[in-house]
Amino acid sequence: MSLPAELKYTAEHEWVAVDGDVARIGITDYAADKLGDVVFVDLPKVGSAAAAGRVVGEIESTKSVGELYAPVDGEVVEVNDAVVDDPSLVNSDPYGAGWMIAVRFTELPALLTADEYAALVAE
Amino acid sequence: MRALFADRHIGTDAAAQKEMLAVLGYPSVDALVDAAIPAGIRLPADAATTLPPAASEVEALAELRALASRNRVTRPMIGLGYFGTVTPAVIQRNVLENPSWYTAYTPYQPEISQGRLEALINFQTMVTDLTGLATANASMLDEGTAVVEGMLLARRASGAATNVFLVDADILPRTRALLAHRAEAVGIELVDSDFAALSPETSLPEAFGAVVQYPGASGRVWNPADAIARVQAAGGIAVVAADLLALALITSPGELGADVAVGTTQRFGVPLGFGGPHAGYMAVRAGLERQLPGRLVGVSQDANGYPAYRLSLQTREQHIRREKATSNICTAQVLLAVMASMYAVYHGPRGIKEIAHHANRLANLVVDALREGGVEPVHGLFFDTVQLRVPGRAAEVVAAADAEGVLLWQVDADTVQFSTDETTTSADALVVLRAVLGDAAPAELGFKPVSRSIDPAHMRQTEYLTHPVFQTHHSETGMMRYLKYLADKDYALDRGMIPLGSCTMKLNAATEMAAVTWPEFANLHPLAPEADTVGYRELIGQLSGWLADVTGYDEVSLQPNAGSQGELAGLLAIRGYHRANGGEHRTVCLIPSSAHGTNAASAVLAGMKVVVVACDELGNVDLADLRAKVAEHADELAALMVTYPSTHGVYEHDIREITDAVHAAGGQVYVDGANLNALLGYARFGDFGGDVSHLNLHKTFCIPHGGGGPGVGPVAAKAHLAPYLPFGTANPVSSAEYGSPSILPISWAYVRMMGAEGLRRATGSAVLAANYIAVRLREHYPVLYAGDNGLVAHECILDLRPLREATGVTVDDVAKRLIDYGFHAPTMSFPVAGTLMVEPTESEDLAELDRFVEAMIAIKAEADAVGAGTWPADDNPLANAPHTAESVIAGEWGHPYTREQAVYPVHALVHGGKYWPPVRRIDQAYGDRNLVCACPPVEAFA
Fold it and tell me: Can you give the pLDDT at residue A8?
């Protein structure tokens, strides 16, 4: 399981890359593996509001459906159209080309470090 | 000699059962069941029954003949969604009466279901072509429920804030009633709108969608393009309920701008059957395909890259999404959809157009003669249905036609209407004329040109049914061979055991099936006068009474067309009961985490809020958590839905405590009858606290699965809920009053030939078979759950997770390898991921049970060889399963196991009817990422 140390994580198996007041969000390698082959990704519209802990999107695999939670309050400023067109990017490159959305946030809540997330998954 | 049917139905004879009991260590079947079923819920063995003693097959058929003779076969010209049609004999014999088609299961294992998947993709192509829309599903339960699903889809897809849905004033009356019953529960407000009379100045109310009947229930043909555009301009989704045959002649909904089209395919060769079963349909424009309810067949590819069919987007289904599911429709009407699609394949586009022309021409012949007699139709533009004003004489006109064996429809005291169809003759037309014009009617109708009843500008200009499959099989020889070619690809009960847990794939006996196609059962219109359907009503009354008797309830409604619809009807009854007794606030439905996801989806559609109750490590409802949830929601508690025996295949010991706790808090208990095959004759839902249940006649009571429908899901309840059940015109959940009557003789015959004693023996034999398999396989695969004395009910869950840990071999690998051994896989990953649930039923004999056990043991050994490194993880008989003939003969054999091991893992298969899968393992992800749901071009198979 790969867990880049520079990223932050959530208990909902998402990673967050913070750049100024924008958080880029995707799901972890672990989550992608648990879902299996991702076949469909439904993302919010650019400009829509995101509320921490609320569902903003859906990730569908051949055997299951996962939800994308917003880890922060804010406004969706960018969505990854490439992953909508080719959902397999979630499996092949979850921390890179498989990113989902970018949210401009007002306040950054407490997030997990890679070590803390690894401990959570190990439970 | 008078042979007992039960001895034919039950696969294991006395000697075999003795052998199996010895393996289990019990002296008798009764002793085994005594140890398995908690004593507190047991029905005394000498309990009184109203079931008559078992009849022989000959006697049962004679009684059915007598019932049939009390139905009167007429020439129904009532229309209203049900039309006369000719089932081509080649389709009747080779599909409807052919166990290769009717005993198959839903195509969850696509590699062994390519035949009916191809038939279904033909169906989807037929519907998309005729409706002019992008994607159609593999059929709906009937037209009325399809309209309801269209309404629900519109609400999801439109995103509009309003809860208003507009309903065409000219919609089928039954559809209107169904919409009202369903809309109320989910907070949708229906507003009627006379779309055809809409003037440009009138503004439509704000709405999330609208449904337009096309042509109208009154027969009127008009152009709804403007109405559709106005609904959409206001942010709504436009649903068109269209007559598929009319679309051969008039502009399609897609070309008119509709978002969704729904309807029935009954008149494509499916008998009237007093209302069903028939295949409804739903098609949507591009962009809405992920909103489609029900089943959707798509194209993917197999391990060799060949095109192969499969069910697409299965994660849309209830077992994944539970209360977030977008619909509670789980199934389709596969057998009927196959028949309708084959009707189109057999007739081709020209034949379909000729049939449409025939109906239209006959209607015009009548109307021209009526005009000469001074009677003008109410609507001058029509396809096949004509409304006539006959002031004060409507009943008299209908009676006059009835006396000559033709059924017309009385709209009101001054209005009648008639519909023509494929079967209408000029003799029928003359009856209509005599009834309306009396002595002024012409004596005969010579061949003459008729008027036009469709505006030329509204005639269809686009082609349909252009794929080669609709051009190729027009001779009977060709059709017979196409049906055989497809049937040969599939695995049904006529090849071997289908041990699908929770599906009860038992025998569908030939005698039970016999009456389905008798004209007295097949050719009755659902709105035929009561005097014409005396036999049917008697059969329905008897069957309802017997079902009430064996379940401990007071009333049974046979109307629901599927288990999911029975659930909904039962929950709506609970809702109606609470509301009538001042319990409007009672909206919480408790559902154990082990329940089938459809329970949760049905609860949401009955306007309830789902609260999940935990299960303990043994798979039983956690009593402490149940009590806590009951206490927490005591004031709002509406119901508990519980399956018995549980979805884990176990007789929960505490069921009485569970139902008592719910009743004490004022809640009602819904017992899901999915697993009734483990209980019948030994215990009754109504005796241990059930207030209402649905049964699955397509499981416990022998209606065949038809490859994924039809089903019948009667709802049975205690007397206090009876006023809220679907009876007559009250509380409808289906288009037809009795749902799917033409297949009820199957269950009637089963109960009639088994008697109370036979039903009880069947249950005991099913429990014996499941426990035998559990014991024989336990040392190879852990059995996940067991109840009292370590016994399972009628099915057992084999845990394959330890195998995966140890060897890397997955549930999928084992399921696909079973195909090479000549078996249909058990249920995969339900109710627990990584497991197989096995339900052998009472109908399999010991040799078949042993063959299955030995196959599973041999597969375990193969998996161990993978684990031990004898074979690489990515190249072994399991990973490569199933093996086609081509895969073992083409080119060099480069695998580390032999060709014999690949396809003849058991030597007996060499001479013993080897089943050859037509494709290799199908890539699920490819098909969902590249959604194609219509016939692929022929070149794809080159």
Answer: 95
Q: Do A62 and B829 touch (CB under 8 A)?
A: no
Cα–Cα distance for residue pair B309/B325, rounded to 1 Å:
24
Does A65 contact B924 at a Cβ distance shorter than 8 Å?
A: no
> Are A63 and B290 inside 8 Å of each other by CB?
no
Residue A37 in any domain: the answer is yes
B172 contacts B80 by C-beta, under 8 angstroms = yes
Residue contacts between A and B (CB atoms, under 8 Å): 35
Angstroms from A62 CA to nearest CA on chain B: 6
Task: Please name the residue of chain B whose CA is at the shortest distance from the CA of residue A36.
Answer: B925
Q: How many domains does chain A have?
A: 1
pLDDT digits (tens, 9 = 90+) for B475-529: 999 999 999 999 999 999 999 999 999 999 999 999 999 999 999 999 999 999 9
Greatest alpha-carbon span in chain A: 37
* Candidate from B313, B320, B928 with C-beta closest to A64: B320
Q: Which residue of B has its CA nearest to A35?
A: B315
- How many angstroms away from the CA of A107 is the closest CA of chain B? 30
Whether the ω angle into residue B831 lies within 30 degrees of 0, i.e. cis, is yes
Q: Alpha helices of B590-654 — where are they, by DSSP H?
A: 597-605, 623-632
Q: Is residue A44 part of a domain?
A: yes
Residue A20 lies in a domain: yes
What confidence score (pLDDT) does residue B756 get? 96
CB contact under 8 A, A39 and B320: no
Which tens digits make up the pLDDT trace of B218-246?
A: 999 999 999 999 999 999 999 999 999 99
The alpha-carbon radius of gyration of chain A (Å, integer) is: 13
3-state secondary structure of B417: strand
**CATH number, domain with residue A101:** 2.40.50.100
Question: Could you tell me which residues are beta bridge partners of residue B640?
Answer: B590, B669
CB atoms inside a 10 Å sphere around CB B874: 9
Is 70 exceeded by the pLDDT of residue B1? no
Residues of chain A in contact with residue B811, where contact means CB-CB under 8 angstroms, are none
User: What residues are paired with A14 via a beta bridge?
Assistant: A27
Q: How far apart are CA B108 and CA B113, in angstroms?
A: 8
Q: How confident is the model at residue B929 (pLDDT cuts 50, 70, 90)?
A: confident
Residue A98 belongs to what domain range? 8-106
Helix B57-69 vs helix B534-551: crossing angle, to nearest 10 = 130
Residue in B closest to A60 by C-alpha:
B315
| Distance in Å, alpha carbon of A104 to nearest chain B alpha carbon | 25
| Nearest-angstrom CA–CA distance, B737 and B922 | 41
Q: What is the pLDDT of residues B621-643, one digit of tens each?
A: 999 999 999 999 999 999 999 99
**Dihedral Cα B486, B490, B493, B494, nearest 10 deg:** 50
Domain presence at residue A15: yes
Q: Each residue of A85-115: pLDDT tens digit?
A: 999 999 999 999 999 999 999 898 999 999 9
Shortest Cα distance from A8 to chain B (angstroms)?
29
Cβ pair B928:A62 closer than 8 A: yes
Q: Which residue of B315, B320, B929 is in closest CB contact with A87?
A: B929
3-state secondary structure B79-141: ECCECCCCCCHHHHHHHHCCHHHHCCCCCCCHHHCHHHHHHHHHHHHHHHHHHCCCEECCCEC
Instruction: Judge whether residue B316 has pLDDT over 80.
Output: no
Q: Reply yes or no on whether the pLDDT at B2 is more than 80.
A: no
**How far off is chain B from A18, nearest CA to CA, in Å?**
31
Nearest residue to B755 via CA among B249, B216, B55? B55
pLDDT band at B3 (very low <50, low <70, confident <90, very high): confident
ipTM of the complex: 0.78
Mean pLDDT of chain B: 96
* Contact: B315, A60; criterion CB under 8 Å: yes
